[in-house]
Design brief:
Elements: E1 7-19, H1 22-60, H2 67-103, E2 109-122, H3 127-131, E3 134-138, E4 141-146
Parallel strand pairs: 1-3
Antiparallel strand pairs: 1-2, 3-4
């Protein structure tokens, strides 16, 4: 931190917004669809791994299986179902986001996230105003910087 000349360097979070354009919508939809496809793939892998583990246990145990083997199989099924539930929740969130992106109007501004910035303050500055800075993007290019830089 620099305190010379009665000046102080601070860090702030800057809100990043984007203007909805056809290109942004298409990229957002592709990204969300890729996430959904990846989750579907993870669900398939999970199902196959769980079944393979159960089959291995059944092959290695006596028939009919004893209580310990039954418990092992049940534990695997519980773990698979818990992970499956988590993945399905993620998939539902992505599907909801995809639906929201599809209904956005062109030229609408939407929040994209935050970035950090270093700024200087000195005696007499309005700190609240200096903290309220926003960057507006159109297809990745800075269209506007709003607030007291």
């Amino acid at each position: 931190m620099d305190v010379s000349n009665n000046q102080l360097l601070l860090k702030r979070a800057i809100n990043v917004k984007v203007i909805v354009t056809p290109r942004w919508k298409e990229e957002a939809q592709q990204q969300l669809q890729a996430q959904i496809n990846q989750i579907d793939s993870q669900l398939q892998q999970l199902e196959m791994q769980g079944q393979r583990m159960i089959n291995d246990i059944q092959r290695q145990s006596l028939q009919p299986p004893g209580p310990q083997v039954v418990q092992q199989i049940e534990n695997i099924q519980v773990q698979v179902n818990q992970k499956k539930s988590e993945l399905l929740d993620q998939k539902n969130q992505s599907l909801q986001q995809l639906n929201q992106v599809q209904i956005l109007d062109l030229e609408q501004e939407v929040a994209q996230g935050q970035i950090e910035s270093i700024f200087s303050v000195q005696t007499g500055d309005n700190l609240i105003q200096k903290m309220q800075v926003e960057v507006l993007l159109r297809d990745g290019l800075v269209e506007e910087i709003r607030g007291d830089i």
